[in-house]
Design a protein that fits this description.
Blueprint (H helix, E strand, L loop, with lengths): L2 H7 L11 H18 L2 H18 L6
């Protein structure tokens, strides 16, 4: 299951070096608030998918 959901539900404890729920929501809002002004359409969608896969699923800035 997704790292962020597990942390939010209390299933696992937040790990050092991984993103917190508050930080994830803040970073995710930056995509639509600021980045959408710079890149459009398909590029924005691809960036959002990669962001979600890396931070939401694994809690870190990489995709396994």
């Amino acid at each position: 299951m997704a790292y962020i959901l597990d942390v939010a539900n209390g299933t696992i404890a937040p790990e050092l070096g991984k993103i917190s729920l508050d930080r994830y929501l803040l970073e995710d809002s930056y995509i639509t608030k600021y980045l959408s002004r710079v890149i459009k359409d398909k590029s924005l969608v691809i960036y959002h998918v990669l962001f979600t896969l890396s931070w939401f699923e694994y809690g870190g800035g990489h995709i396994m």
